[in-house]
């Protein structure tokens, strides 16, 4: 790591399970941070699940420094067992990231996937809607959808009054809102 103490945090992302990135709190002024935080994700069993783990050094004045990225195949975990994994971040300085994982069996029935033999996709719900601005509204003239998920058109082409289609996958924690642009 750096010559001075870091303000570290970890982000992790599992694109097969969620559309959002998770983030730990920042542990300030140490090169040996401990987070002791727990995160829970629904992991689809029929897909290859590779967790992207990134370590960052938070900086209040400039953009945060990226320290390291680790990719971890969750298929290496065994159901019902807690497993501690040690990820080497820098062989020269012997920096490591230690994480504990536990893969537990869900009570929910597995979700059915659609496949053409090459690509697999979870069933989607389709939300169709129109964004309209009322004459007496205090909202600005342009509105765009915001959030994580899939749109049928590029977001910057969406103007007020446009009919939209938003595809929702329950397992991807899809979020939808309206961003009011000035």
Rounded radius of gyration (Å): 21 Å
Q: What percent of the residues sit in helical stretches (DSSP H or I)? A: under 10%
Number of β-strand runs:
13
Q: Report how far apart the termini are.
A: 42 Å
Tell me what the CATH architecture of the largest domain is. Sandwich
Query: CATH topology of the largest domain, which one?
Result: Immunoglobulin-like
CATH superfamily of the largest domain: C2 domain
CATH class (first level) name of the largest domain: Mainly Beta
Strand content: 35-45%
Residue runs with pLDDT of under 50 for 5 or more positions: 154-160
Number of contiguous helices: 0
Structural class of the helix and strand makeup?
A: mainly beta
Quickly count the domains. 2
H/E order of the elements? Answer: EEEEEEEEEEEEE
Profile the largest sheet.
4 strands, antiparallel
Q: What would the average pLDDT be, to the nearest integer?
A: 78
Strand order of the largest sheet: 2-1-3-4
Structural commentary:
- The protein has 182 residues and is mostly beta strands.
- The protein has 2 domains: 8-102, C2 domain (Immunoglobulin-like, Sandwich), CATH 2.60.40; 114-181, no CATH class.
- It contains no helices and 13 strands.
- The strands form 5 sheets. A 4-stranded antiparallel β-sheet has the order 2-1-3-4, with no helix packed on it. A 3-stranded antiparallel β-sheet has the order 9-12-11, with no helix packed on it.
- The radius of gyration is 21 Å and the shape is globular.
- Residues 154-160 have low confidence and may be disordered.
């Amino acid at each position: 790591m750096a010559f001075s103490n870091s303000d570290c945090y970890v982000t992790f992302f599992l694109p097969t399970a969620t559309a959002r990135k998770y983030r730990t709190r920042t542990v300030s002024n140490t090169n040996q941070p401990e987070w002791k935080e727990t995160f829970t994700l629904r992991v689809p069993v029929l897909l290859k699940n590779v967790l992207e783990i990134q370590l960052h050094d938070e900086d209040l004045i400039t953009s945060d420094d990226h320290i390291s990225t680790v990719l971890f195949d969750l298929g290496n975990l065994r159901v019902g067992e807690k497993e501690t994994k040690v990820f080497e971040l820098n062989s020269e300085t012997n920096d490591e990231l230690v994480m504990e994982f536990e893969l537990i069996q869900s009570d929910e029935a597995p979700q059915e996937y659609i496949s053409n033999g090459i690509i697999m996709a979870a069933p989607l719900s389709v939300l169709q809607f129109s964004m309209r601005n009322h004459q007496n509204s205090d909202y600005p003239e342009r509105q765009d959808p915001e959030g994580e998920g899939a749109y049928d058109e590029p977001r910057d082409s969406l103007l007020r009054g446009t009919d939209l289609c938003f595809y929702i996958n329950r397992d991807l924690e899809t979020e939808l809102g309206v961003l009011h642009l000035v």
